[in-house]
């Protein structure tokens, strides 16, 4: 099974970029977009001057619980930059959503409660609410995480979108919002 099949089988359709989109990023944005692939994992990420965005992290079921995901994130943490990623809220019908959140919580990630993020999938046409998690070697502000997410959205998510999907994603200000007051509750609060 190739890297794209692994990602497509694991991630929901509404979260997947097309293969052409990802391959274009790897080829045309090779200065910032990278793939780390092994027999049991696929890690796709963008590394910019002041942060890292994890686009996809897949670890095979056979390898889960053996520390592989933690090692992959540790290699990114060694770069001493904030690490940002998107995660879907807990879905009672998909136990993996809670497991993923617990994993990221164990890895020291925080929930950016002041950032609202809703994006319409060009594949399903549905609006999906996502949450932003981040790890920082220093206490980065959520406002700086918000600015990094805006840059990620414009450089990675919407890269040549009309060419790949026949239409554009929404503008960044329609997708991301920053509330100056943090919500009291984090995405981790409902975990067992």
Question: What can you tell me about this protein's structure?
Answer:
Strands 1, 2, 3, 4, 5, 6, 7 and 8 form an eight-stranded mixed β-sheet that branches. The chain is α+β, with helices and mostly antiparallel strands and 192 residues long. The radius of gyration is 16 Å and the shape is globular. β2 (41-47) and β3 (52-59) form a beta hairpin. The protein has helices at 3-10, 19-28, 68-77, 95-106, 142-157, 161-165, 172-175, and strands spanning 33-38, 41-47, 52-59, 83-87, 110-111, 115-120, 127-135, 176-178. The chain starts with a helix and ends in a 14-residue tail after the last strand. The longest helix is centred in the last third of the chain and has 16 residues, at 142-157. It is built from seven helices and eight strands; from the N terminus they run ααβββαβαβββαααβ.
Question: Concise description?
Answer:
Helix content is 34%, strand content 24%. It has 192 residues and is α+β, with helices and mostly antiparallel strands.
Which key terms come to mind for this protein?
single chain, 8 strands, 192 residues, alpha+beta
Described by strand count, sense and barrel closure, the largest sheet is: 8 strands, mixed
Helix content: 25-40%
Element pattern in H and E: HHEEEHEHEEEHHHE
Give a count of the beta strands, DSSP E runs of length 2 or more.
8
Instruction: List the total number of helices.
Output: 7
The overall average pLDDT, rounded, is 91
Find the structural class using helix and strand composition.
alpha+beta
What's the helix and strand layout?
Blueprint: H1 3-10, H2 19-28, E1 33-38, E2 41-47, E3 52-59, H3 68-77, E4 83-87, H4 95-106, E5 110-111, E6 115-120, E7 127-135, H5 142-157, H6 161-165, H7 172-175, E8 176-178
Parallel strand pairs: 3-4
Antiparallel strand pairs: 1-2, 2-3, 4-7, 5-7, 6-7, 6-8
């Amino acid at each position: 099974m190739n890297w794209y099949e692994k990602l497509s089988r694991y991630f929901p359709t509404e979260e997947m970029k097309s293969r052409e989109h990802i391959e274009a990023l790897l080829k045309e944005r090779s200065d910032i977009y990278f793939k780390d692939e092994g027999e049991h994992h696929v890690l796709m990420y963008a590394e910019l001057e002041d942060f890292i965005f994890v686009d996809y992290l897949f670890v095979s079921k056979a390898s889960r619980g053996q520390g592989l995901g933690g090692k992959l994130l540790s290699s990114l943490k060694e770069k001493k930059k904030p690490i940002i990623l998107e995660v879907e809220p807990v879905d009672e019908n998909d136990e993996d959503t809670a497991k993923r959140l617990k994993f990221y919580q164990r890895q020291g990630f925080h929930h950016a409660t002041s950032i609202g993020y809703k994006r319409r999938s060009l594949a399903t046409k549905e609006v999906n609410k996502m949450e932003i998690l981040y790890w920082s070697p220093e206490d980065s502000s959520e406002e700086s995480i918000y600015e990094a997410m805006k840059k990620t959205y414009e450089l990675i998510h919407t890269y040549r979108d009309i060419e790949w999907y026949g239409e554009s994603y929404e503008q960044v200000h329609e997708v991301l919002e920053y509330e100056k007051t943090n919500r009291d509750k984090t995405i981790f609060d409902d975990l067992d």
